[in-house]
Amino acid sequence: MKKNFKAKALAVFACAFALCIALVGCAGGSGAAGDDAAKNFQGDWVLSGGSSGGQEIDQASIDSMQQLGMNVYIQLQEDGTAVINLFGSEMTGTWKAKDATTADFTLEGDTEEIKIENDELVIAVDGDSLRFKKGEIPAAETSTTPDEMESSTPEA
Questions:
Q1: pLDDT, tens digit, for every residue of 10-20?
Q2: Dihedral sign (CA 103, 132, 117, 11)
Q3: Residue 5: its pLDDT value, please?
Q4: 12 versus 29: which is more confidently predicted?
Q5: Cβ-defined contacts of 81-89 (< 8 Å, 24+)
Q6: Is pTM, for the whole model, over 0.85?
Q7: How far apart, in Å, are the Cα atoms of 18 and each of 34, 38, 89?
Q8: Which residues contact 143 (CB under 8 A, 6 or more apart)?
């Protein structure tokens, strides 16, 4: 199950990250109760670092990705729903706090543990990790809540 989760989320990120590095190189760019514990996780989290495939994701890489309009963020909503955006590709899931620093994050049927460490949300799977800090989602990005996805109808 962990490999399936990694294939769906982190593998997409790793490929896009490698593509971004190549593009930048070519361009020459440079212990509370349940509800209280859940409040620690709720909100918008933007990529702040991590590692993928043995490569460190540093702030310079993140800045370069953002300049190209390639944003990565997670929204953990009060009702337990989640939206993860990897470079414009959104996936929905759910989350549930286990305690003040640990929660379960479920994406497309696979569940992984997420943690808050040093004011960052950390997702780690098979040696790869992504770190997020609370912040504002870039204005150009729009999130879709699960309710909006269900109620939207395609235009004819």
A1: 554 554 454 44
A2: positive
A3: 54
A4: 12
A5: 81/145, 81/146, 82/107, 83/143, 83/144, 83/145, 83/146, 84/9, 85/137, 85/141, 85/143, 86/9, 86/12, 86/13, 86/16, 87/12, 87/13, 87/16, 88/141, 89/12
A6: no
A7: 39, 34, 17
A8: 75, 83, 85, 90, 137
- For residue 100, pLDDT beyond 90: yes
CA angle 113, 136, 50 (to 5 degrees): 40
98 contacts: CB under 8 Å, gap ≥ 6: 37, 104, 113
